UniProtKB/TrEMBL annotation:
Residues 1-21 form the signal peptide. GO terms for cellular component: plasma membrane; side of membrane. PANTHER family: MONOCOPPER OXIDASE-LIKE PROTEIN SKS1, MULTI-COPPER OXIDASE. This is Multicopper oxidase. InterPro entries: Cu-oxidase-like_N, Cu-oxidase_2nd, Cu-oxidase_C, Cu-oxidase_fam, Cupredoxin, CuRO_1_AAO-like. It comes from Handroanthus impetiginosus.
Amino acid sequence: MGAYCLMYWICIGLLLGVCWGADPFANFNLELSYVTASPLGVPQQVIAVNGKFPGPDINVTTNYNVVLNVRNKLDENLLMTWSGIQMRRSSWQDGVLGTNCPIPPKWNWTYQFQVKDQIGSFLYYPSLNMQRASGGFGSFIITNREIIPLPFNTPDGDIVIMIGDWYTRNHTALRRALDNGKELGMPDGVLINGKGPYRYNTTLVPDGIEHETINVDPGKTYRIRVHNVGVSTCLNFRIQNHNLLLAETEGYYTSQQNYTSLDIHVGQSYSFLVTMDQNASSDYYIVASARFVNESLWQRVTGVAILHYSNSKGRASGPLPDPPNDEYDTSYSLNQAMSIRQNVSASGARPNPQGSFHYGSINVTDVYVLKSLPPVMIDGKLRSTYNGISFERPDTPIRLADVYKVKGAYKLDFPSRPLNRPPMVDRSIINATYKGFMEIILQNNDTVVQTFHLDGYSFFVVGMGYGEWTENNRGSYNRWDAISRSTVQVFAGGWTAVFVSLDNVGVWNLRSENLDRWYLGQETYMRITNPEDTGNKTELPLPDNALYCGALSRMQKPQRISSSSTQLVCSKLYVIMVIVFSKIFYGLR
Ligand SMILES: *[C@@H]1O[C@H](CO)[C@@H](O)[C@H](O)[C@H]1NC(C)=O
Ligand SMILES: *[C@@H]1O[C@H](CO)[C@@H](O)[C@H](O)[C@H]1NC(C)=O
Ligand SMILES: *[C@@H]1O[C@H](CO)[C@@H](O)[C@H](O)[C@H]1NC(C)=O
Ligand SMILES: *[C@@H]1O[C@H](CO)[C@@H](O)[C@H](O)[C@H]1NC(C)=O
Ligand SMILES: *[C@@H]1O[C@H](CO)[C@@H](O)[C@H](O)[C@H]1NC(C)=O
Ligand SMILES: *[C@@H]1O[C@H](CO)[C@@H](O)[C@H](O)[C@H]1NC(C)=O
Ligand SMILES: *[C@@H]1O[C@H](CO)[C@@H](O)[C@H](O)[C@H]1NC(C)=O
Ligand SMILES: *[C@@H]1O[C@H](CO)[C@@H](O)[C@H](O)[C@H]1NC(C)=O
Ligand SMILES: *[C@@H]1O[C@H](CO)[C@@H](O)[C@H](O)[C@H]1NC(C)=O
Ligand SMILES: *[C@@H]1O[C@H](CO)[C@@H](O)[C@H](O)[C@H]1NC(C)=O
Ligand SMILES: *[C@@H]1O[C@H](CO)[C@@H](O)[C@H](O)[C@H]1NC(C)=O
Ligand SMILES: *[C@@H]1O[C@H](CO)[C@@H](O)[C@H](O)[C@H]1NC(C)=O
């Protein structure tokens, strides 16, 4: 510790000399624990963050260094992931088993990363073992620096709405069902900000359920950030009598368009600008209802909250606003998804316009077709697959295994097409080429709509369709203003095509956001290395506080809760120093 302190004093000189004006730090303590809640009238243990369910908003400004000390007060291993945040050059902080050893119960672990070149609405949630089905989630907001203008007038307020399907069974019970080869079945309801539905219908909603109320002032325009944090249900989101002006999704500004309702898939985030332009003759319903299911059977899977104007003259009553009437028109939702375009003239996080990056004229270097099928039995266990491979969770994180040259921790043989062979459980990952430009076609041969998510990147959603994708479909790609995002839907019996520029070194998880499919093995990783990097330039070094497990578990020291204040101060200074050093390398890049 003494040495760290000494090095700190050396570094302070460097700090004053080289790193003047360094990006600010934002520190958070996140404590995950069980609390009792009854969102649907049935008491159950939910996962709270700092005692809150849903967890608190994390709200930072672009380029901040974010330090999050996560304390695990659950009775099982934990990892938090920061969905949609690119963790540039540092998959070490991504919080999935391919990059991090889990945080054991009673332990804490500090994540640290810089939120670089991103502005918008993101999510955090626990990544292991279906825990998100019990909570632990929250909104992660990155705001713009003053010098970067917004492509709309500054809203009068910022409102977060978390929607998601919900089971009264907890994550361990849901896991047990899947382990026993059973599908999860219909959820018990939809929560809005952790609360059950407003009693819009006395037959459908029992008495005594607490609902969410969003308070607004007439005439004002709010930025409403909506996240689907559910298990597997796509939800149609709408606000009675109000237009939703779509402005941003997962860190990119959209071409602004009004929608009366929008389908929000599991894991997706959107910002709407909503003007309170109604006469407040009563409150208004906010609705999130199940999609792509038989709505008359799934009536109870509907979330209802209340939009309350400060001059409201009465309670909301009567029927809910109608969902889209497209029972016989499968293309409605698909066309809606493709109508979400990037505003190519709006500034992103960087002062230069995003439109100057002409992704449509870059030659594709690698093509991967990832096909999902309905879950199957493999060796007597229910499993789900991409290209016939059900991913076996790593014992030793993939990148950590690289650093310590652990043999056999994974295979670099993930097939670029579905193969004609029996499904298997394996640790196959994608050997991707640094600076390549990859086309990924997600072919969903499963019976349910899926969402696909890639860590470490945003990708361009260039096409979607029904049936089997063929090369001819490339003719229909949007090569000009496709939206860039990190989470995209793939309709049952259809395909989605994305382009991704592989400029972020690391090992990155790609997965189904449907929690059951993810748990059953529908994920893999993309490994991107830069053989020319010998100076920590394109990838940050293994963090000093890395946990060790699997083949490296003998390297893990027991966690001591230190009470010595000097030790604490010194280790904090050491952390700052490490950052300053990496800042120097980064700054000179
Ligand atoms: C989850 O539910 C099961 C019953 O299905 C119960 O035994 C268990 O204690 C619950 N776990 C937590 C953390 O509440
Ligand atoms: C655990 O939290 C303490 C402060 O509460 C902190 O000093 C320590 O660095 C944390 N441990 C890790 C591994 O992040
Ligand atoms: C796109 O962004 C520009 C620049 O901020 C803004 O003026 C314009 O209104 C936006 N256009 C649309 C259609 O969203
Ligand atoms: C986030 O912080 C910014 C400025 O610090 C504030 O304007 C905004 O309202 C905050 N958003 C939320 C949802 O707390
Ligand atoms: C409440 O829902 C039930 C079941 O869908 C329906 O039959 C009934 O008409 C609804 N009641 C009202 C007042 O809308
Ligand atoms: C969206 O709808 C609002 C009314 O709610 C209207 O004032 C606005 O002009 C519309 N914007 C666009 C881009 O259509
Ligand atoms: C308020 O608006 C509703 C529908 O938009 C209309 O039916 C009602 O008459 C209006 N009430 C008043 C007092 O203007
Ligand atoms: C939905 O379920 C109801 C009740 O079982 C049934 O009558 C109806 O035909 C179903 N609708 C569709 C489109 O399958
Ligand atoms: C893309 O490929 C075409 C033909 O294969 C070639 O003519 C063109 O120069 C390439 N473009 C770039 C930017 O490399
Ligand atoms: C991974 O890809 C690189 C080229 O990008 C190649 O040199 C290497 O041999 C591949 N590794 C394996 C194990 O296939
Ligand atoms: C799955 O693939 C088969 C063979 O290509 C096709 O006949 C079937 O319609 C597909 N089903 C779905 C749900 O995509
Ligand atoms: C990269 O970082 C590691 C760990 O901090 C360090 O051991 C190594 O010397 C660094 N390499 C260079 C070339 O700076």
